[in-house]
Write a structure and sequence with these properties.
Layout: H1 2-19, H2 23-49, H3 54-61, H4 64-71, H5 77-102, H6 106-109, H7 113-117, H8 120-128, H9 131-140, H10 144-173, H11 177-200, H12 205-209, H13 231-304, H14 312-340, E1 344-346, E2 348-351, H15 352-366, E3 372-375, E4 381-384, H16 386-404, E5 413-420, E6 423-429, H17 437-440, H18 460-470, E7 474-479, E8 485-492, E9 512-514
Length: 515
């Protein structure tokens, strides 16, 4: 079983690091690799120490041949002991660092020194358990052996407990459904791997250095495996390892797959827009030429009206239609040009009440009878360019209303705000039929539209996404179980609500960012 777990963890660490190269992935890979090193060290030690029951041998090595191969590998006791020390003391460090990484508790975020202090105990243990240092220390102070055994066992358990508590608290504090769904696999994986670690973490490297000695100090180590387990005990041991192994590795693979899919979709979307960007200028130039031709045609129609006995109603109808189409195409071409052309935004503190006012005012101009229920925190601030962000919200509101009208009773669309972890979330909710699964994969692509292509060019949602990204945020969409869809704009949280005063002196510190 440990052999399979070691192989699975090794593959998992490599896969995580290959899929996504960032600090989080580095910590996850280090976590898996340290547990792999620890299990490998334990297996070698158990194989060399011997005295195993047949059941335990099968549990660990599957066969005598594998156990014999492991047993006769050449390795010094100092090397073997330090391999175990590396795995034992690096795993809780990586685990607690990951918990700090995921935790959004303000106390931890405001105290980055805590993450550095977490290095002290693992670092000190690795120094004290270095073979030469350990032998000299125990040789001079024999009682140091017992102190090191008890102290190291206590602190590794405390690290594991702290990490699990932080992860569980963070998961329970997450209220947005998609955030919890994304966070759950990593919580399950880390808790399962921590449980596996706790099963074996009692093994002290000092026992390996003092291979030929035995006293009560070592009872927390692998010595318990040498006792004849009852049938029930053996079943429990196997079940715990199997369940934790499947949950840990399975959830890790699921998380890795989700990250890979998200990154792949992002790259594909960027490539599609790059293609659209290269052809945009040609497209706009061509359509403007067509618009000029339409204007010439319009003038000819007007000239026809000067002739004797023209069909005035028909000609005027054609002329008006042509003029309207002309103006519509001009507006669409300008919208397209504005989307693909590099712009800049100025990020300054803006109250959500101000964004709500501008957004609804724009919405009323297009849909005077449109029904909107606004529920934003009026005093809460975000870093934003109010013109661009309100334009993004306006686009989402109009899409939501267009999806709602004609679908049963036209219920109000909703403009809401939430505080979620380190994000301020702006939600636009409709009560329409929702979005078809096949459309969800394409709705943010440029030039994709499920509506009438004569009036919708499919650039609206991509334009919204571009604006959101220029605000250092992200855009999500989900169908709700009760019906309808919700679009979420996740923006980095900016402090707390400021009531009664504006901090205008901060405006000069915010630069420009390309759209």
């Amino acid at each position: 079983m440990l052999l399979l777990l070691s192989v699975g963890l090794l593959m998992g660490s490599i896969l995580v690091l290959c899929v996504k190269k960032n600090w989080e992935s580095l910590l996850l890979s280090g976590l898996c690799l340290s547990l792999t090193v620890y299990f490998v060290g334990l297996m070698i030690f158990i194989a060399k120490k011997g005295g195993l029951s047949q059941e335990v041998m099968n549990f660990l090595f599957f066969s005598r041949e594998i156990r014999a191969w492991v047993q006769y590998r050449f390795i010094t006791l100092g090397q073997l002991g330090y391999i175990v020390a590396l795995g034992r003391y690096l795993f809780p460090l990586f685990l607690v660092e990951l918990a700090f990484q995921y935790s959004m508790l303000s106390a931890l975020r405001k105290a980055p020194l805590a993450r550095r202090l977490a290095l002290i105990l693992p670092g000190a243990s690795l120094v004290l358990y270095y073979p030469d240092v350990y032998r000299r220390l125990v040789g001079v102070l024999p009682q140091a052996k017992d102190i090191l055994v008890q102290f190291s066992y206590v602190w590794v358990l405390c690290y594991v407990a702290l990490a699990v508590v932080l992860l569980v608290v963070e998961y329970c504090s997450t209220t947005m459904h998609f955030s919890r769904r994304k966070f759950l696999p990593i919580v399950i994986s880390l808790v399962a791997l921590a449980t596996l670690y706790v099963l074996y973490c009692g093994q002290d490297p000092g026992q390996i250095y003092r291979f030929y000695s035995y006293d009560y100090t070592w009872i927390k180590g692998v010595g318990y495996l040498q006792f004849a387990l009852s049938v029930g005990g053996y079943i429990v041991l196997v079940a715990v390892n199997v369940v934790c192994g499947i949950l840990g590795l399975g959830s890790l693979l699921r998380y890795t797959q989700t990250s890979f899919t998200s990154d792949r979709d992002e790259v594909v979307l960027e490539r599609k827009f790059d293609v659209a960007r290269t052809g945009a200028s040609v497209f706009v130039h061509s359509i403007k030429n067509q618009l000029l031709a339409n204007r010439v045609l319009y003038k000819r129609i007007r000239a026809e009206l000067q002739k004797e006995e023209p069909d005035l109603e028909r000609v005027r109808g054609y002329a008006d239609s042509l003029y309207e189409n002309n103006e519509l195409l001009i507006g669409r071409s300008e919208e397209l040009y504005r989307t693909v052309k590099a712009k800049s935004v100025r990020l300054v503190p803006v109250k959500l009440g101000r964004l709500q006012e501008i957004t609804i005012d724009r919405f009323r101009k297009k849909y005077p009878d449109g029904r909107v229920r606004a529920g934003m925190d009026q005093e809460l601030q975000v870093l934003a360019d109010e013109n661009y962000l309100s334009e993004a919200l306006y686009n989402l509101l109009t899409n939501a209303w267009e999806a709602t009208i004609g679908y049963e009773e036209a219920r109000p669309v909703e403009l809401l705000s939430h505080q979620e972890r380190l994000y301020t979330v702006l939600e636009v909710k409709d009560h329409g039929p929702g979005i078809q699964p096949e459309e969800l994969k394409h709705i943010f692509e440029p030039f994709y539209s499920s509506k009438n292509s004569n009036f919708n060019w499919g650039m609206g949602l991509y334009h919204v996404r571009t604006i959101v990204r220029s605000h250092l945020g992200s855009l999500r969409v989900e169908n709700r179980q009760e019906g309808g869809a919700s679009f979420f704009i996740l923006l980095p949280r900016y402090g707390t609500a400021r009531r009664g005063q504006e901090r205008k002196q901060h405006d000069s510190h915010f630069g420009r960012r390309g759209l």
